[in-house]
Amino acid sequence: SQRMQIDSFPQWKWFVFFCFSWLNPLLQLGQKHRLEKGDMYSVLPEDRSETLGEELQRCWNEEVKKASKELWKPQLSRVLIKCYGKSYALAGLFEFFLEAIKVIQPLLLGKIILFFENYHPDDQRSLCMAYVYAAAMSISTFGLTILQHLYYYHVQRTGMRIRVAMCHMIYRKALGLSTESIGRTTTGQIVNLLSNDVNHFDEITLRLHYLWAGPLQAMVIIVFLWYEIGPSCLAGVATIAVMMPIQTWFGKLFGIFRSKTAVLTDSRIRIMNEVVSGIRIIKMYVWEKWFSALVTEVRKKEISRILKSSYLRGLNMASFFASSKLIIFVTFTVYTLLGNTMTASQVFVTMSLYGTIKVTLTLFFPLAIEKLSETVVSIRRIKNFLLLEEIERKNIMLPLAEKGGNSIEIEKLTCYWDKSLDAPSLQNVSITAKSHQLLTVIGPVGAGKSSLLSAILGELPRDTGTLKVKGQLTYASQQPWVFPGTIRSNILFGRELNPKKYEQVLRACALKKDLEMFPDGDLTLIGDRGATLSGGQKARVNLARAVYEDADIYLLDDPLSAVDAEVGKHLFDKCICGLLKNKCRILVTHQLRHLREVDQILVLKEGQIMVQGSYSELQSSDLDMVSLLRRDEEQEQLSPFADPEKLSLQSRWTNDSHSSHCFLNCPLPPESTYTEHLPVCIFTKEIEHCYFYKIVLFYLHFYMVPWYINKSLVIFHGLVRSAQTLHNSMFSAVLHTPVSFFDVNPIGRILNRFSKDVSQMDSVLPITFVDFYQLFLQNVGVIAVAASVIPLILIPVVPLLLIFLYLRSLYLRTSRDIKRLESTTRSPVLSHLSSSLNGLSTIRASRSEEKLKKDFDAHQDLHSEAWFLFLMTSRWFALRLDSICSIFITLTAFGLILLRDGLVAGEVGLVLTYAVTLMGNFQWTVRQSAEVENMMTSVERVVEYTELKNEGPWETQQHPPSDWLSQGMITFDRVNFFYDTDGPPVLKEISATFHAKEKVGIVGRTGAWKSSLVSAIFRLAEPQGKIYIDGVVTSEIGLHDLRQKMSIIPQDPVLFTDSVRKNLDPFNQHTDEDLWKALEEVQLKSVVEELPGKLEAVLAESGSNFSVGQRQLVCLARAILRKNRILIIDEATANVDPRTDELIQKTIRDKFKECTVITIAHRLNTIIDSDRIFVLESGTIQEFDHPFTLLQNKEGALYRMVQQMGQAESASLLESARQVAAYANQIKLNLKCPGVQG
């Protein structure tokens, strides 16, 4: 639909604007159909994210520059005051007049009551003055309504502008963070900054003016109180003075608890992020219970802090509602003890003035301090983030005008990821790479290969030496980065489509055949984490993005490891040496078979160049090519950030951040309330005879106050405990749900339930609900009391109630849609940040930061449209309710004077006071009820996740025999496997048997669904057909019984933010000796020994202080410790050099010789010595036999794959297969004839 323009509304017709009549078309539209994004008004030009963000960024840069010159710390709060102080001060004028009217109204009320006290039918002058006072009362009420909404409009818009500008700055900073800075922050912290911390700006702007308005108003009111009741007023003021420090202290405590809670929330979200990211590994390792215990422990501490905050809130609210009783009791006790006689006008004026000062000083003022405390914490957190170091690229890339030929010149370069560690990541490296040249970098795991590319990219800070890059860089990362969108959008990455070039890139990157398999071709949506693509397909899309970019220098970090030999040869020949043949290319690889065809070879070890030159030069030297890659245990140094993908933070989160930063969260009474609930006995005709009144007051203050406090604490406790129960149920349901759920739901969407929705249930919903129900009960009591004195008051209350209910239904329909839109438009903001951080090195290499900033700003602007409409529809609703209240008060005031005969002062005071109190409270109650209903969407979203479909039970009554899986035989009986029940099977009619202790290799082209065979064995989705393991049907036993008996080394190595010990043995089932032995067997002992804390050293997020190859070795160590009869290796050695691969294979042969080993690999030399080889193509069995037998068939699939390796290597593989066959035949002969010696 046609987008409506906010900037077209009549700015100068302020009355029309501030009546929010421009929202009427939208509200009418909301009655007709569900609102969509196209129905929203476009954002005002001055509220655009780019405009606001750049202005605040400019001020912040000036502050940082000035602070560095004058040697003091930059202050973000000073920058905010500079940018927004003037406009916010203007809103303070509205607040000043607003509070002035609240002081004047009780005096007008007193004058009207005084007229009835001294009423004489013939006194026309007094009657005229009464009408004047009634008119003044009416005008002040309408003025209060208008000024109130002018004030709220300005401060809420200011809060929104600060938040939007701050988000822009945080995103801009995230794109520029240096590697060291990324190591000092966490994913959970950045999630919290954008989903929780910035929201405090929406809240503080509402309350900050009360810090000066409250004390000022108090001084004026004390003067009026002295005039009314003399020195007795000091007793009540003293009571307020005693309560103020207590509630101010509460406010400071809120800030302390908020700070402590934020740390725990960061930790919980980080763990949840790791759980969702690594859910496949967690399920296959049967680690659900360990992670459940981790989350439960953190959540328990978090709830403890939240409960303390809630108890404080409860005490705060209880003291607010009870304070009026206490103040009145103390004041009038002193007043009567001094021998004074109370009159109706004195009572009502005094109590109204006390009501005003009490609301301001005991609620709004402490609330302002509370919000200020919380905001100061958030500002400090954001400031610390903004002060993190950014990446420097000084004198690295020369401008185009200075290009003398595309090349890279490095001379005596030394770099450190972390200077606190002795070993440099690169040491004394000198390289020259010229145009049209292919430079290949090889070396063992942790040698510094990826660090070299990072240094060229400018990601790794230089210590000494020079580095010059002439020309435009592009980069393909080792771990493929894909973002939510189509395959085409991932390749184009914002560039224009050139059909001819695009087609060439698809062919060169071997993607044509894969795209033909997808129903939508290159327009297929790949979702978060590239869930619909195989590892090889993601790697080729990642490569295609780099190749499509028209750059001068291409940095390719091991793009061949994730693909099979045939596709790898195609990529090398057609892409790296074909389409890119006229470009400068630096290729990191472990595929030594391609070395003959490269121009220059660079061998790295421990960050130093061991040798460089052409293949022939290296052959003629004394150095053996394989020995160059040898990994010496005693000298191997841990490269703290060996891979540039550490920059990606290895995480995705929030999110679909649901819900808003609702400003209606505070326990606020209606803004126009200035009176309190008065004991009925005050309004007897003879007020001076009030002995009964004193007894009632005594009862109220010494019984009701503790009851108020206990009631609030009990309710808060119950609501927070309910939130805890719901969170635990949701987490349990997420752990029990099948893996397919995580493939179709982005991480941000899942984490949003655990961050924003849980936050709503923990903190916001309880206080709003308590406020609503207390006000509701209060209103019922007020109506009952008023009706008992003047039954006619029910006549206007009934139609008023009907009007309120109509307006509420009208508002709720539209506000629900707008709230939904606010949630859905906030999701892309956080998802965009998440995706950007994951591909940070790729983004910076292609200089795409500006484009991504614009995309982020566009997402923010869309969210601002929904948020601004959410604020304005709330104002529309409140303005109409307050206007009806004002009309009701006007009718009441004039009606009492018109019907003056027979009325006494006490009754008039009751009706007028309760008219104001009822209407103010009632409109607030209606708004709070709407808020509770809106906030219940968070509860609904959490409940929705508690009802997720479960995978099979973890344990069943039918346990396998105690000696089960002692052999390791696996039989597939007509197995079909589906990822989507409505889609086609990815594995089709698989029937095969893997014998006990047999070593089976599984090969096939990238995208042949090899890893799906692993998913079927582990029952990550339920296969059709039967899989037998040692005679037991896997579908008939519990998932934990099945999975804990098998070990896996996965394709994507997953480490968690915990100690090395916990990553190896989370359940403490093994001794230190076992752990060190396992690390030694996978060549990691020396690496771990150098870590501070050794086994207790805590790994960085996602294990990013290990290289990818080292992470794979940790996974191998896990498998060695588990000592299971079945081991599955899924591309586990793709990211390690051949020498390390050889060592790993030797370890596997030694340690798992009594086990059934299933190996999925692209390196044919890894599986050529298998007992049998299983060849898959498009989910069906092509061949399954001994390797030598398969290689005899020149029409066979395996033979074709071996021939792709080149003549020398294919001959070597054939010879290896022949030796394995001869050895197997010899074993068989020995078994048949025991006396024969081989």
Largest sheet: 6 strands, mixed
Percent strand equals 5-15%
Strand arrangement, largest sheet? 8-9-10-6-11-12
Total E-strand runs: 22
Q: Can you count the helices?
A: 39
Overall average pLDDT = 76
Structural class: alpha/beta
Label the overall shape.
elongated
> Roughly how much helix do the residues carry, as a percent range?
55-70%
Q: Low-confidence segments, ≥5 residues, pLDDT <50?
A: 5-13, 628-703
Rg calc = 37 Å
N- and C-termini, Cα separation? 83 Å
Provide the fold topology.
Blueprint: E1 4-5, H1 14-18, H2 24-32, E2 41-42, H3 49-70, H4 76-117, H5 124-176, H6 179-183, H7 187-195, H8 200-207, H9 210-229, H10 233-277, H11 279-285, H12 288-337, H13 344-386, E3 397-398, E4 407-415, E5 426-433, E6 438-442, H14 449-457, E7 462-470, E8 473-476, H15 487-492, H16 499-508, H17 512-517, H18 535-548, E9 553-557, H19 565-579, E10 584-588, E11 600-605, E12 608-613, H20 615-620, H21 625-628, H22 691-736, H23 739-744, H24 747-789, H25 794-838, H26 840-845, H27 849-898, H28 905-946, E13 970-977, E14 987-994, E15 999-1004, H29 1010-1017, E16 1024-1029, E17 1032-1033, H30 1039-1043, E18 1046-1049, H31 1060-1064, H32 1072-1081, H33 1085-1089, H34 1108-1122, E19 1126-1130, H35 1138-1151, E20 1156-1160, H36 1164-1167, E21 1172-1177, E22 1180-1185, H37 1187-1192, H38 1197-1203, H39 1207-1232
Parallel strand pairs: 1-2, 3-7, 6-10, 6-11, 8-9, 9-10, 15-20, 15-21, 18-19, 19-20
Antiparallel strand pairs: 4-5, 4-7, 11-12, 13-14, 13-16, 16-17, 21-22
Helix pairs in contact: 2-25, 3-4, 3-5, 4-5, 4-9, 4-13, 4-28, 5-8, 5-27, 7-10, 8-13, 9-13, 10-12, 10-13, 10-24, 12-13, 12-22, 12-24, 13-28, 16-19, 22-24, 22-28, 24-25, 24-28, 25-27, 25-28, 27-28, 32-34
